[in-house]
Predict the 3D structure of the following.
Amino acid sequence: EVQLVESGGGLVQPGGSLRLSCAASGFTFSSYWMSWVRQAPGKGLEWVANIKQDGSERQYVNSVEGRFTISRDNAKNSVYLQMNSLRAEDTAVYYCARLVYGSGGLDYWGQGTLVIVSS
Amino acid sequence: SYEVTQPLSLSVALGQTARITCGGNNIGSKNVHWYQQKPGQAPVVVIYRDTNRPSGIPERFSGSNSGNMATLTISRAQDGDEADYYCQMWDSSTVIFGGGTKLTVL
């Protein structure tokens, strides 16, 4: 059974940093692109970042470029999102999801982790 | 960047058919995926690659995609179908979401 479990969310002050983790199981992690998607309270889904199987390609939404870094450790079956210079507008539930490259669909999602940026 | 448009909300009577649209320039040339999200839960795929239904998704859910419009059709709508629905596609190595449609079953 495919499982994605996020952790690392919490309350952080504006300008602060946080590192999210997503532990994957039930599939060959190193064979898949992975993504982070967020959802601000009461808002829609917003894609944040993608990373290729070997980490050699990464893409980001413009609003987080230069502040967030997606990475992965295939030996630990985990993907990460390092978030720096956090702003109030980064407040959201952050989901990791498995990306099916080619069709571009997100076929499995974690349960999400809440990040609140507030003083 | 590529943009798509969904209606903010849609109401359907119990047992009737709901059609949720996702409009975009030549969207018919892209693979469109649909997600259902209920309050407090993660999104779940209900249709992938325009017309395909994952195992466990009722046959009442179907999809189509042609020209400038993709459509998610929910036949014989049930109370449990009340949720937010998002279309999604891949464009220039990025993931694009529609704004979401809130489906209310009356």
User: Anything to note?
Assistant: Chain B touches chain A through 25 residues (CB under 8 Å). The radius of gyration of chain B is 13 Å. The longest strand of chain B covers residues 83-91. Strands of chain B lie at 9-12, 18-23, 33-37, 44-47, 61-66, 69-74, 83-91, 94-97, 101-105.
